[in-house]
What we know:
By secondary structure, the chain is α/β, with parallel strands linked by helices. The chain has helices at residues 14-26, 57-60, 68-79, 117-133, 145-154, 187-191, 197-210; strands at 45-49, 83-84, 96-97, 100-104, 139-143, 169-171, 178-182. The protein is globular and about 45 Å long.
Amino acid sequence: MSFCNPDYDCSKCERLVKFRLENRLKYPSYHNAPVESFGPLTASMLVVGMAPGLHGANQTGRPFTNDGAGDTLMFALKKFGFATGKYQRRKDDGFELVNARITNTVRCVPPHNKITSDEVKNCRPFLSAEIADMKNLRLILAIGKDAHDAVLATFGLKKDAFKFAHGSVHVLPVSSLILVDSYHTSRYNISTKRLTPEMFDAVMQKAKDLL
């Protein structure tokens, strides 16, 4: 096990292991393993999502790659100067992050795109280690409430004191890190207009200004 990424055959979560093995049989060409973070550890911004998508990061082996959620996030990162290259929905597309890093609360794909509190708890040491190793980290962008709650739990902070809301900015007292919230960039949220590209652009601009 590495300091901030699980082993290829991590066995911490029985339900996720079972689903992983099923997918290795069903989709043998997929990554089908814990998905490592993407971007430099020297970055000032860490983007935290919920978990890999079955046909997204679980297929490609790179967070937020090859699904609707990733399309919205990656294009915004490029637009606001946090990435270079052309995003082409695959791990070897040459797309690179600049002063930003992406990870997930839970590193393995969950059934029905739903994570459990035990799975979040089991994966928490990896997020904690990652945050500790990012010496230049100043801002965490939480993509969705699950990510927001996981970040607070990592620092032992109560959710009631830092309520999730799209566009909210929280200064975390134990670290002086800034936590910025966004609705999840899922295809569902985009299609229902719970989150519009303009709304997400506003959050990205806020994060850039704060940095």
